[in-house]
Amino acid sequence: MSWRDEAPCAGVPIEVFFPGVGESIWEALELCLPCPVRAECLDWCLSNLSSHYDEAGVWGGTSVSDRRAIRRGTVTAADVWAAREAAMSMRMKAC
Ligand code: SF4
Questions:
Q1: How many whole angstroms from 72 Cα to the centroid of ligand 1?
Q2: Residue nearest ligand 1's atom 5 by CA
Q3: Which of 32, 35, 57, 87 fits a disulfide with 61 by CB distance 3.0 to 4.6 angstroms?
Q4: Which of 32, 43, 90 is nearest to 67 (CA)?
Q5: Residue 6 confidence (pLDDT) above 80
């Protein structure tokens, strides 16, 4: 069994995870942040997409700029997820 079998995004339109320039990534993050396989998803992206080709999309609850920072070692995935979860919580309180 693959981590992909547990992915809650199966069947979700790909555009959700590859929004256009200037479009929000929050729709994707609403699926990714509670996803039980976000670590595996992010690891797959970091391991299989070189930094040169990793120029779009939300993988494992991270944006392209998040992954650049993770690759540089200036943040960890845990840092990114914690910040996104805090922001998500603030968004939900504002609604
Ligand atoms: S982290 Fe996001 S893109 Fe990755 S499997 Fe989970 S829902 Fe899908």
A1: 22
A2: 7
A3: 32
A4: 43
A5: yes
**CB contact at 8 A, 8 and 35:** yes
Contact between 17 and 58 (Cβ < 8 Å): yes
Across 35-49, b (16+ Cβ under 10 Å) vs e yields bebbebbbebbbeee
Residue nearest to atom 7 of ligand 1 (CA): 32
Give the residue ranges of DSSP H helices in 1-95.
26-32, 38-48, 64-72, 77-94
Half-sphere exposure of 12 (CA within 13 A, CB side): 16
| Residue 34, ligand 1, Cβ within 6 A | no
Residue 53 clears pLDDT 90, i.e. is over it: no
pTM, whole model, 2 decimals? 0.91
Specify the residue with its C-alpha closest to ligand 1, atom 8: 9
Residue 29 has pLDDT above 80, yes or no: yes
